[in-house]
Amino acid sequence: MTDEAFMARRFFREMLNLSVKLRINRLDYEDVFNKAQGCGSLNAGFKVQTSPQGDAMQVAVAEMAELDDEYQRLFQDYMLHRQKARGLISSINDTRLQNVLRLRYCAEMRLKDVADEMHYDYDYIKKLHVRALAECGKIMAAS
Fold it and tell me: Which one is predicted more confidently, 121 or 60?
């Protein structure tokens, strides 16, 4: 794999990593929310001013606010990456290469699933994937 292909792969991996971080953030948020409800500091139905566990509500609200701020930052980064990825993918002339990258990185499918979706052999999809990354890398290097 060329340096340009590695550069493109790194870019697309960053986008996938941001997607995973967004999901983890939401799971963490739900966990904090559920723990806060369990200790009586938050109630989903109405605003509660006090907590039987002392400052548990303040800690939970602060944690939730931090997680929400992090989510907003991650979401912005993810959307910028996704927009750039769509532009890069659209710049490739070969529609097969475009489809491989769209399914792999925008739809977040495994290459095996991409092969099934496109009705190609898995080994052939791996080769197309490398070619698609090389094409994206050339476009990234030129810009």
Answer: 121
